[in-house]
Known about the structure:
3-stranded antiparallel sheet, 20% strand, 2 domains, rod-shaped, BirA Bifunctional Protein, domain 2, alpha+beta, binds phenylalanine, 13 helices
Amino acid sequence: MPDAPDAVEQLRRQVEAETIESEEEAEAFRVAYLGRKRGKVGALFDQISEMAPEERPAFGKAVNALKDDAEAKLEAARERLAQEERAAGPDLDLTLPGRPPARGSLHPLRETLGEVTSVFERFGFSVAEGPEIEDDWHNFGALNFPPDHPARDMQDTFFLEKEKNEARVAGEQNGHTEDPKQDVVLRTHTSPMQIRVMENGEPPFRVVVPGRVYRNEALSYKSYCLFYQVEGLYVDEGVSMGHLKQTLSLFARSFFGEDVETRFRPSYFPFTEPSAEMDVWWNDPETAGGGQWMEILGSGMVHPNVLENAGVDPERYTGYAFGMGIDRITMLRHDITDIRTLYENDVRFLSQF
Length: 353
Ligand code: PHE
């Protein structure tokens, strides 16, 4: 057994040789030297009993000093480690590229709507918007729908509770709309704006009306309870079917491209006479025949009854009107196969545009 002071000296050198570079090493140091049970410093005290009484005080003093020094070393190491950790800051890698902020984009319907109206603006049309809650007169009556026309049927039209809207309807100043007993509906098309535009101004009229319309239809991949239309109205002296064809063909070339093919098919609407639908040839290599005709709008010469209902003299003025479906065009352009996705506002869908 080594001389007692030698043992203290030996352990002191051991303690001094220790390096403490982490929390784990600090804890290991504490257990090895200062631990209550097996700590090497504490173990030295055991030797006191074997010593000559006169040697004991000096020995005890030396062991206590070693204990103080070991504790000081441990505390200094812990302080240094804590400081280093603070200096390192939170655990982040400053060399990583930053996260770009999420950028919004136009909803595909809004984008198509904007492009369609801007083509007509370049043609000299102005843009107007109208109410989505309409009265029977503007949505049907003034547009020459007979009282028993199937489009007025509950199947197609969303009716609002009449009583709740009586005050609103009664408040309107335009001729027929003063009847508080008429039906109030969610507009089934943008055509009521033909009437509103004409009854609030003097010809000529040259306006497009983008907006939402509502129909009570069975929901499926190709029909939804609301959708978008752009209405067009041009009324002046001497407006003809030729103007209609020319303007809508020019629109198709501006919107779809110079080499787009269009065709007009005779059709029927109560508020136009004659009426026609316009189709565009939609190229699609996956379809037999390389594509198909897609109907994009209904149109026609404004019916004289409609002009008269809106206070425009049908002897003097003629006009054309059209109504274009925006959803189908949008779906074709973006390869969207289910109309409902346009209304669900799922960001995973929308962020693709
Ligand atoms: N309003 C008709 C529809 O919703 C479209 C149309 C508008 C037809 C204007 C002719 C003139 O189907």
